[in-house]
Amino acid sequence: MRKQHPAPAVLGVVITLVLVGFAAVDASGSASGATPRSKLTVTAPAAPGGGWDLASREFQQALRAGSVVNNVQVVNVPGAGGTIGLSQFAEIGDDPTRLMMTGTVMLGAITVNNSSVDLLDTTPIARLAEDYEVLIVPADSPYQTLDDFIAAWQENPHGHAIGGGALGGTDHLLAGLTAGEAGIDPAELNYIAFAGGGEVLTALLSDTVEIGISGYNDFRDQIEAGNLRALAVSAEQPVPGIDTPTLIDQGIDVSLPNWRGLVAPPGITEEERTELISIVEEMTETPEWADALDRHRWVDSLLTGDEFTEFIREDQARVDAIIEELGL
């Protein structure tokens, strides 16, 4: 039996549909012709209101106000110290119009949560700035100074509850480092993990914990209102605008910056990476970014490209060593 051939009209319809399908695929694959200069989407791997969200939205505002990139969107993907956002981000493909905010907290979460993806599975773009932790107590706490608290802590390491963020996060790391420098076994910490600075504040004011640790901006309003007393800041040197002595100034040789930085998806080209670095560098020169650094007491620490990649590798190793000391 001879095969029947489709009628010319039917064949024309089929060809037309195939061509339309190819066009749709091509448009989708090229993100409608979007480039990093015309459109950027920034993933904040945390809930709205957190540190990564704040940094992402200040980045967004500076890009727009400085006419570096006008179409900038921020999407929140919270959970597991940022590792949920990281795992999703690593799977989106080689799209140069996507960036993700990251930082010290994610390094700890990668190890503690046994994440199958780490930051070196992305394309590091730039470290932007450093934020710092504070150790704080309620205004009516008997601990007037860091020395007061450490003296009591040394007598009964497990008897003093310390509140902070997720296990393995910056707050926890700082508690462990401070304990070690004070001659206290970090494994003896009575550390209580909370979802964020807001919950730590509630625990402090309700006497659930004796001392809290979080980013300075989480407690800034309460410190300035006189409801909390800051005992120490985790910077290497005094931070302009923060009237609190460093741990180092008080004899505890510990500094721990909570840096913020940006990574792109894996697989983008070197030219695309260079363009994204240029965009970030232009953003950091805007008056809006300078204003953000001043308002939030962030310290400029721009580091780009391969130097940033090496920094991530070294900082992950440092964080891993601290976590091992903490017994996590």
Description of the molecule:
This protein has 328 residues and is α/β, with parallel strands linked by helices. The protein folds into 2 domains: 32-130 and 259-326, 3-Layer(aba) Sandwich (D-Maltodextrin-Binding Protein, domain 2); 132-250, Periplasmic binding protein-like II (D-Maltodextrin-Binding Protein, domain 2, 3-Layer(aba) Sandwich), CATH 3.40.190.10. The protein is 43% helix and 20% strand. The chain contains 11 helices and 10 strands. Strands 1, 2, 3, 4, 5, 6, 7, 8, 9 and 10 form a 10-stranded mixed sheet that branches. Helix 2 (51-65) packs antiparallel against helix 10 (287-296). The chain is globular, with a radius of gyration of 24 Å.
Measured between the Cα atoms of the first and last residue, the distance is: 74 Å
Q: What is the percentage of strand-forming residues?
A: 15-25%
Shape: globular
Assigned CATH class of the largest domain = Alpha Beta
The ordered string of helix (H) and strand (E) elements is HEHEHEHEHEHEHEHEEHHEH
- Using the 3D structure, state the CATH architecture of the largest domain: 3-Layer(aba) Sandwich
InterPro entries: BUG, Bug_dom1
Protein name: Tripartite tricarboxylate transporter substrate binding protein
Family: Belongs to the UPF0065 (bug) family.
Organism: Streptomyces hainanensis
